[in-house]
Amino acid sequence: MNLLEFIDKGGIIVYILIFLNIIGFTIIIWKFTTLPQVNKTIAKIASRLDFNHSTNAQIEYEVKKLESGLVIIKNIAIISPLLGLLGTVVGIYSSFEEITIKGLGDPTIFSGGIAVALITTIAGIIVSIPHQIAYNHFISLVDKIEIKAKKELVKEENR
User: Fold this and answer.
1) How is the chain split into domains, by residue range?
2) I need a surface site. Which of 24, 72, 105, 114 has the fewest CB within 10 A?
3) What is this structure's pTM?
4) Can you tell me the distance from the alpha carbon of 9 to that of 118, in angstroms, rounded to the nearest whole number?
C-alpha cells in the first residue's frame, strides 16, 4: 500500500490529521526561525525594557510573546491520537455494521474494516509525536531565556 492509498483508506479523519499537521509544522518552522539563540533574544528583550517600570513584569510580558503559537502545537499533540482513536472506533463500528448486513461468511469484511480503523490510529500517533517533541523543546528554550533574562536584566536594574 502506497502513501496515497494509506491516506485514502483512512478517510476524513486522516485528512483532518494532515490539515492539523500542516498547521503545526508551519508554527514549528516559524518558531525555529524566530526563536534564535538565547543571548540574541535576551538582547532584544533588554532593548525593549523601560527601567521606570517593573523589570520582572516586562520580562514576563516578552516571554508570553515568545510562547505564542505553542498552545496550538501542544493541542495538536494532544488531539491527534484522540482523533486517531475516534477513527478506529468509527472503523470498527462500520465493520460490525457490515457483519450485521452480510453475516460472518466472509472474514475479509471484518478484517478489512479493522485494517482501515488502525490506519487512523497510526496517523494520529505519527502526527502527535513530533508536535509533542517540538512543544517540549520550545517550552524548555523559552524557560531558559526567561531565567537568563531575569538573572541578567534584573542585575542591570539594581545597578
Assistant:
1) 3-158
2) 105
3) 0.83
4) 10
